Amino acid sequence: QVQLVESGGGSVQPGGSLRLSCVVSGLTLDYYAIGWFRQAPGKEREALSCINTLDGSSHYADSVKGRFTVSRDNAKNTAYLQMNSLKPEDTAVYYCAVDSSKCFSTSFYVTTRYDYWGRGTQVTVAS
Hints:
Layout: E1 3-7, E2 10-12, E3 18-25, E4 33-39, E5 46-52, E6 58-60, E7 68-73, E8 78-83, E9 92-99, E10 116-117, E11 121-125
Parallel strand pairs: 2-11
Antiparallel strand pairs: 1-3, 3-8, 4-5, 4-9, 5-6, 7-8, 9-10, 9-11
Protein backbone atom coordinates (compact mmCIF):
# COMPACT_ATOMS: atom_id res chain seq x y z
CA GLN A 1 0.00 0.00 0.00
CA VAL A 2 1.44 3.33 -1.06
CA GLN A 3 1.28 6.13 1.48
CA LEU A 4 2.52 9.70 1.39
CA VAL A 5 2.82 11.72 4.58
CA GLU A 6 3.56 15.42 4.54
CA SER A 7 5.02 17.25 7.51
CA GLY A 8 6.73 20.51 8.35
CA GLY A 9 3.81 22.85 8.02
CA GLY A 10 2.97 25.45 10.61
CA SER A 11 2.57 29.15 11.21
CA VAL A 12 5.23 31.62 10.14
CA GLN A 13 5.52 35.36 9.73
CA PRO A 14 5.80 36.96 6.30
CA GLY A 15 9.33 36.68 5.02
CA GLY A 16 9.92 33.50 6.97
CA SER A 17 10.79 30.00 5.80
CA LEU A 18 9.52 26.48 6.18
CA ARG A 19 10.68 23.15 4.86
CA LEU A 20 8.05 20.57 4.05
CA SER A 21 8.80 16.87 3.88
CA CYS A 22 6.97 14.14 2.02
CA VAL A 23 7.77 10.61 3.14
CA VAL A 24 6.69 7.92 0.72
CA SER A 25 6.18 4.30 1.71
CA GLY A 26 5.10 1.32 -0.32
CA LEU A 27 7.25 2.05 -3.34
CA THR A 28 10.86 2.92 -4.16
CA LEU A 29 11.30 6.43 -5.42
CA ASP A 30 14.01 5.81 -7.96
CA TYR A 31 11.81 6.16 -11.06
CA TYR A 32 9.00 8.49 -10.16
CA ALA A 33 8.15 12.14 -10.04
CA ILE A 34 7.02 13.92 -6.91
CA GLY A 35 4.73 16.88 -7.28
CA TRP A 36 3.91 19.57 -4.75
CA PHE A 37 0.55 21.29 -4.74
CA ARG A 38 -1.40 23.60 -2.49
CA GLN A 39 -5.01 24.53 -2.00
CA ALA A 40 -6.27 27.63 -0.26
CA PRO A 41 -9.85 27.89 1.02
CA GLY A 42 -12.25 28.52 -1.82
CA LYS A 43 -9.58 28.08 -4.48
CA GLU A 44 -8.59 25.31 -6.84
CA ARG A 45 -5.62 23.11 -6.18
CA GLU A 46 -2.49 24.76 -7.54
CA ALA A 47 0.58 22.96 -8.82
CA LEU A 48 3.82 24.33 -7.41
CA SER A 49 6.66 22.10 -8.44
CA CYS A 50 7.76 18.63 -9.41
CA ILE A 51 11.00 16.71 -9.22
CA ASN A 52 12.08 13.63 -11.10
CA THR A 53 13.58 11.27 -8.59
CA LEU A 54 15.94 9.59 -11.07
CA ASP A 55 17.93 12.64 -12.15
CA GLY A 56 16.69 15.39 -9.84
CA SER A 57 15.40 17.59 -12.65
CA SER A 58 12.70 19.91 -11.43
CA HIS A 59 10.07 22.39 -12.59
CA TYR A 60 8.29 25.26 -10.87
CA ALA A 61 5.19 27.35 -11.21
CA ASP A 62 5.88 31.03 -11.81
CA SER A 63 4.19 31.90 -8.51
CA VAL A 64 6.95 30.20 -6.51
CA LYS A 65 9.95 30.23 -8.81
CA GLY A 66 12.94 31.69 -7.03
CA ARG A 67 11.37 31.30 -3.58
CA PHE A 68 10.67 27.56 -3.36
CA THR A 69 13.14 24.76 -3.96
CA VAL A 70 12.25 21.11 -4.36
CA SER A 71 14.67 18.29 -3.59
CA ARG A 72 14.64 14.59 -2.84
CA ASP A 73 16.56 11.96 -0.95
CA ASN A 74 15.90 8.64 -2.63
CA ALA A 75 17.66 6.73 0.12
CA LYS A 76 15.10 8.10 2.58
CA ASN A 77 12.18 7.88 0.12
CA THR A 78 11.55 11.52 0.93
CA ALA A 79 10.98 14.70 -1.03
CA TYR A 80 11.30 18.20 0.35
CA LEU A 81 9.94 21.62 -0.45
CA GLN A 82 12.02 24.47 0.94
CA MET A 83 9.89 27.60 1.06
CA ASN A 84 11.55 30.98 1.57
CA SER A 85 10.30 34.56 1.56
CA LEU A 86 6.82 33.36 2.45
CA LYS A 87 3.87 35.65 1.83
CA PRO A 88 0.37 35.68 3.29
CA GLU A 89 -0.92 34.45 -0.07
CA ASP A 90 1.12 31.27 0.40
CA THR A 91 -1.30 30.24 3.14
CA ALA A 92 -2.85 26.93 2.11
CA VAL A 93 -2.84 23.20 2.67
CA TYR A 94 0.20 21.74 0.93
CA TYR A 95 0.14 18.30 -0.67
CA CYS A 96 2.65 16.00 -2.26
CA ALA A 97 1.81 13.43 -4.90
CA VAL A 98 3.53 10.67 -6.86
CA ASP A 99 3.52 10.41 -10.64
CA SER A 100 4.70 7.07 -12.05
CA SER A 101 6.16 8.84 -15.10
CA LYS A 102 8.63 11.66 -15.55
CA CYS A 103 7.32 15.17 -15.04
CA PHE A 104 7.84 17.99 -17.48
CA SER A 105 7.32 21.73 -17.33
CA THR A 106 4.39 21.45 -19.73
CA SER A 107 2.48 18.82 -17.78
CA PHE A 108 3.41 18.72 -14.10
CA TYR A 109 0.39 20.84 -13.22
CA VAL A 110 -2.07 18.22 -14.47
CA THR A 111 -3.42 16.70 -11.26
CA THR A 112 -4.78 13.59 -12.98
CA ARG A 113 -1.22 12.52 -13.80
CA TYR A 114 -0.58 11.74 -10.16
CA ASP A 115 -1.38 8.31 -8.82
CA TYR A 116 -1.04 8.83 -5.08
CA TRP A 117 -1.59 11.78 -2.81
CA GLY A 118 -0.83 12.70 0.75
CA ARG A 119 -3.36 14.22 3.12
CA GLY A 120 -1.66 17.58 3.30
CA THR A 121 -0.07 19.87 5.83
CA GLN A 122 -1.29 23.34 6.73
CA VAL A 123 0.92 26.36 6.13
CA THR A 124 -0.19 29.70 7.53
CA VAL A 125 1.69 32.90 6.83
CA ALA A 126 0.54 35.80 8.98
CA SER A 127 2.01 38.55 11.12
